[in-house]
Amino acid sequence: MPDQATKVLVVFYSRDGAVEALAKAVAEGAREAGAEVRLRRAPDIVSESVMAKVPGWKERSERMIAEYGAPTTADADWADAILFGTPTRFGNVSAELKAYIDSLGGLWFQGKLNGKAAGVFVSTGGPHGGNESTATTMFVPLSHLGFVIVPNGYTHAKIHHGVGTPYGSSMVAGPTNNPPTSDDLEIARHQGKRTAQIGAALKPLRA
């Protein structure tokens, strides 16, 4: 990958796999735009006794950390654009992903995140479970950190028909943890490509 390639970090938290699937689609879209991509999964912060109450949680966590690695501040420093993915937790971002966002204070203090592109994508268990509130709430810390927020807007025809949100890609997993639909994944790929392209346009301005 040439040095001038736009660098995109896709960092997410996923317990059951829905947000992981969206993250992979976002990464695919960024690569379609010619970006170099790092995919990272935020680690769990609860005890193993809590994880044991949900069948397969610990095993999925170990698999994802082994496959993607945990995000570091060096990943954020490296990136020209970052996309943050989370399940909703009572209408808000998961504690696991928020812990990573909170860890970026050192980069913020140095001004190293100013002008980088950022986007968000989310999943919830029900149609009114907080996808939009989670996405827009995440805009607040990202604004403080200096990111240029890149929403989806209505830049894809399927968003006009209720796929995703204008704030970021989203899906409803439902009580049985359904995977994303093909339309959900299409919008996620669109978001990854769009954010990578805008990250590329912002890159010379940061220099």
Question: Key features?
Answer:
single chain, 207 residues, alpha/beta, Rossmann fold, six-stranded parallel β-sheet, globular
Write up what this structure looks like.
- The chain is α/β, with parallel strands linked by helices and 207 residues long.
- It has one domain (7-206): Flavodoxin domain (Rossmann fold, 3-Layer(aba) Sandwich), CATH 3.40.50.360.
- The protein has 8 helices and 6 strands, in the order βαβαααβααβαββα.
- Strands 1, 2, 3, 4, 5 and 6 form a 6-stranded parallel β-sheet that branches.
- β4, α7 and β5 form a beta-alpha-beta unit.
- α1 crosses α8.
User: Roughly what is the average pLDDT, rounded to an integer?
Assistant: 95
Biggest pleated-sheet summary: 6 strands, parallel
Question: How many structural domains are formed by the residues?
Answer: 1
Given the C-alpha coordinates, what overall shape results?
globular
Set out the fold topology:
Blueprint: E1 7-12, H1 18-32, E2 36-41, H2 48-51, H3 57-68, H4 73-78, E3 81-87, H5 95-102, H6 105-109, E4 117-124, H7 131-145, E5 148-149, E6 169-172, H8 182-206
Parallel strand pairs: 1-2, 1-3, 3-4, 4-5, 4-6
Q: In a nutshell, what does this entry contain?
A:
The chain is 43% helix and 16% strand. It is an alpha/beta fold and 207 residues long.
